[in-house]
Amino acid sequence: MNDALVPVKSDESRDKLIQLVSFNLDEEEYGVDVLKVREIIRMPIVTRVPNTPHYVEGVINLRGKVIPIISMRRKFGLLETESDKQTRIMVMDVEGDLMGFIVDAVRRLSASPAARSSLLRR
């Protein structure tokens, strides 16, 4: 996960469009490559797991698969808030494994010229 954001080389991606799912975390809006997002779900009950890093919320059972859930607020040292009706889990493919990331809200799907984007999700 440490190489999740990488610069886009404009010579490779000139005139290409990338599709992004945008989401909110605190007061900021971020985007992630739509091809990495498997699904977006409402907050279920998360089972806590002992002896995990502080940012691991726990795990969920998603149609028979155990998915680890990461609190993006904890990961980035943001003030914790209660989940509300807009809180979502973005289930994503991370190096071949499914992981869930808790975000404040998912906003929209958008296309952006890759040459103008400074960061792209791998």
What does this structure look like?
This protein has helices at residues 10-13, 72-75, and strands at 5-7, 17-25, 28-33, 37-42, 56-62, 65-71, 88-94, 97-103, 105-113, 119-121. The protein has a five-stranded mixed beta sheet. It has a three-stranded antiparallel beta sheet with strand order 3-2-9, with no helix packed on it. Strand 2 and strand 3 (28-33) form a beta hairpin. It is mainly beta and 122 residues long. It contains two helices and ten strands. The longest helix is centred in the first third of the chain and has 4 residues, at 10-13.
Strand order of the largest sheet: 4-7-8-6-5
Residues in helix, %? under 10%
Characterize the overall form. Answer: globular
pLDDT averaged over residues: 84
End-to-end gap = 10 Å
Task: Give the SSE string.
Answer: EHEEEEEHEEEE
Strand proportion, as a percent range, falls in: over 45%
- From the alpha carbons, calculate the radius of gyration and give it in angstroms: 15 Å
Which regions are unreliable across 5 or more consecutive residues at pLDDT < 50? 1-8, 115-122
Q: How many beta-strand elements?
A: 10
Tally the helices: 2
- Judged by helices, strands and strand pairing, the structural class is mainly beta
Largest sheet: 5 strands, mixed
